[in-house]
Amino acid sequence: EVFLPEETRGAAPVDFLQQLPSYQSALRRRATAGTQERRAAPQGPAGFRAAEGHGPQQEGGEVAARPAREYPLSIAEKRRLRDCQQADIKYLSGWKQWKRTSSKSLKKVLSEVKELSSYLELWRHDIHSIEGKFGTGIQSYFSFLRFLVLLNFIIFILMFSFVTLPSIISKYGMFNSSFAKIPPKNIEPHCTVYEPSGNKGLVYFYTYLKDLLSGTGFLEVTVLFYGYYTIDAAWISILKYNLPLAYLLATFAYLALSLIWIIKRSVGGFKQNLVHNEDQFQSYCNKVFAGWDFCITDPNAARLKHRSLQYELQTDLEEERLKRKIADRTTKEKLRIYSLRIFINIIVVAVLSGCFYSIYRATVFSQENSNVSIRHDDVSNMNFQANLLVQYLPSMVITLANFIAPQIFSFLIRFEDYSPAFEIRLTLMRCVFVRLANIGVLLFSLWSQISYCATDKCNACGYNYELYPCWESEVGQEMYKLMIFDFIIILAVTLFVDFPRKLLVTHCSCKPVQWCGLQEFGISDNVLEIIYGQTICWIGTFFSPLLPAIATIKYFIIFYIKKISLIHTRKPAARPIRASSSNFFFLVVLLIGLVLAFIPLGISIAHIPSSKACGPFRNFNTSWAVVPHTIDGFPTGLQQVLYGIASEAFAVPFFMVICLIMFYFIALAGAHKRVVEQLREQLVMVRFDPLFCAPKV
């Protein structure tokens, strides 16, 4: 480790700036000078102790015991330094000797535990194999898929432990437990009637299949959906468990866990993305001298990497050509291109409006007709097919919109005359918007049906109790159907599109077939596909607490489906994206999906009246009302503290403090940016002025 002079140490950049090539170059120059000084210093224990004295000082003036490998010395000098460090231990006190020995032992144990845990990592060998054959870009997709599997598994453990398990234990009387149901007060009797459409008597097989695919029938009364959790309190031995509060807090906990975990993983990608945002000359040098991926071992992947580097260089040249073209545009040409972009964006808005209106109409039609068929209890085979089609109509329309809209966007972007990199980003953002907005339109359509009241009896309940006696379970069923249908589409595309196409390309020599070739494994499209499913999971977990378990199994199977598809039926994309930037982009889009999931969940919890016939919030006007009701049971002093935190008198100063902290970090980031610019200027001086780095006499 090399230490900067005092005047530089005070303005040292933060850790992520130390990853910059310019900063590392400055460190190497100082390391060379520092090594020469150490070699000129007296050798032996005293000399090495003097060299070690340049290291960081611990509290109390004790010299930090750093391993010899951390010093920029030769192997022989490191060995002598290690012998000197071991010889110095006998002169330390017993407490310091024990402290140094225990520190080394702890570091060794932690290193061994970390190495052991790496062998227990999920799909470790598979992902390394994919990285070796296809490079780090495709490997980043499978690593991202593994992250979602782990995230959903943790969310499932959270919801099962604090919501599902206490309900099961109390309902079956395990561990001397019991439960309490408090009848709703000041509620009209007709609002509390809920008769799930369970199967009675002789049931056909296809009825079970319909229930399994749609979440109705026998599944509607299981722990999978919100309507099962109708108890108000659980008594486990002598402990009282407040299930409504636990249900709400578990929802906040999985959302907060997802947010913190995504932000934590985004930090590393942000640092790499910041380092890679260099000027064009540095970008060109990195592609030419450091662009090769040494993880690649497959010859086909190597040829693909060659084409990828060639494409990136061509893209850079094309962007430079477009910059000159933009600079040379006349006023007439600018007017023409801006008018064309406005017209194309109007077409984009029209396409989005058509998708949203189609989803709205399909949802309204599905809700009205599926409820009619359930009330009539049709069980014939023809009615089974028609009813299943009606129930899955919103999911099919959403899937169709997710397929057609990106194709239209990819076609229209060619006429907008953007740079290739900006074309990719703009198309991806439009695709992200259409996928996530489709879920929002579906929920809006459901809420419009749930909130529609035309009679006084309906207004007394606050929602459409006739069609939706337990509206939370209805929303959970829609999220369940979206997730199941999304998985069916992924499986069907692999089995009935990719495999036949592979067979045709392999065994048919027709020119049209060979011209089409194999389908490319588009990283961005596949990532948007699973982020769409993850957003559904975040929204649906409140209405279906075990939906994360289904998402975990779904993504676990998708990993092997995509792996087989990549190896046997598809080819890597000819225009791959950098692994570092792709990881950061994946997490940013996932964060957008999480933020958008907050909106419908917030409306459902705080605005829409909760069902009075089912669920843990039957006795509350909204789900959020359980929080002030719980606070009212606290001691008076604690109540005043909590209400004071929630008041404007606390919120305004807190907001001002947050703003000051934000302004401080903005100023700090500006200072770090100036440090980066100075280091780059020094690097330029070193390159053009040999006297700049000459040793001072």
Keywords for this structure?
mainly alpha, globular, 697 residues, two-stranded parallel sheet, three-stranded antiparallel beta sheet
The averaged pLDDT comes out at: 76
As laid out across the biggest beta sheet, the strand order is: 1-2-3
The rounded distance between the terminal residues' Cα atoms is 25 Å
Binned strand content: under 5%
Q: Which oligomerization state do the chains in this entry correspond to? A: single chain
What does this structure look like?
This protein is mainly alpha-helical and 697 residues long. Among the domains are: 71-120; 126-278 and 453-629, no CATH class; 286-328; 647-696. Helices cover 70% and strands 2% of the residues. The chain contains 24 helices and five strands. It has helices at 6-9, 21-40, 45-52, 75-89, 94-119, 124-134, 136-171, 205-214, 243-276, 280-290, 299-327, 331-376, 381-391, 393-412, 420-451, 456-461, 471-507, 511-516, 523-540, 547-569, 579-606, 626-631, 636-645, 648-688; strands at 177-180, 233-236, 239-241, 519-521, 570-572. It is globular, with a radius of gyration of 32 Å. It comes from Glareola pratincola. It is a multi-pass membrane protein. This is Transmembrane channel-like protein.
